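*** Query protein ***
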Amino acid sequence: MAVVAAVSTAGAPAATNDVRPAKSASTNSAAADPVEKEYKQLMADDDAAQVEVDKWITDNQAFAAKGAGVPDADLNRRIRERFGPIKQRYEDFIKLHPDHANIRIAYGSFLNDMHDEAGAEVQWEKGRQLDPKNPAPWNNLAGIYGEDGKVKKAFEYYAKAIELNPLEPLYYHNFGTTVYLFRKDAKEYYNITEQEVFDKALQLYAKALKLDPDNFPLASDVAQTYYGIKPLRAEEALRAWTNTLAIAHDDVEREGVYLHLARIKLAAGRFDEARRHVNSVTNEMYADLKQKLTHNLDEQEQQAKGTNGTAVISTPKTEEAKPPTSNLQPPEKSQGPTSKP
């Protein structure tokens, strides 16, 4: 299911990359099964509806930037009308086939995308009960539990999802983010120190990257983790950002990474190297960040010369060097994405 920006564009979830039931290769028996045929058609129609809605939202944002967008209320009504028949088909299918595990998981993802987290939890839990060996509902429910404060249960469910499918990078990523976010709970649950909590989160991220080494948003998210680790692990952070730079797709992503490298090197007192990174940034979209970072660099370099001290890293929550269409998350991470079966 494609990511839905929102029924209200201002209230979109932080991440809705659900794992739905895996699409298996068609067999003669499956093709002849009318229930499975209906299920697959519903999945295809759901996907098509979400692609269409995504385009409406994207187009309206572009029109709005030019002063020609339709009001949110009108767009929301149009979106609800488009998804209404899909929702009804899910409910009709479940009435006829209440023990179909995959439809429960897929409907949970649909409801989650529509901001009905309570409804999604009900469907995912039913799907988990019907098919306990399917890792998707374990992952999805773990995300719900993390948001609801049932963090230790989230740890258990992410671990179970990984046990069932150790080759899915999303599960390690989500688990790592939850450990990182809820450090106090992780310390108590695993009986480890805060630094060991950071180590555990980074180990989970490393496994995600090993399985998906070319995923730029994932690599960026992992690298930004170092902003929250005190004391700063400068060399590890620089390696993480250097690895992220190697898989950048375009100049926008590359220049965003240059600014992150400059920030880390500024914090480490490597002023000349930091300045070279800043000077490599030419894209106008980064002009404000570049100006602020240059100011900090000038100021902290002068201070260091006067005191022989080392600069202190700043971690603004709203000034991250990232492209506007990127999936990068700021140092204050949000709860990780869910998955579709």
Remarks:
- The chain has 15 helices and no strands.
- The mean pLDDT is 86.
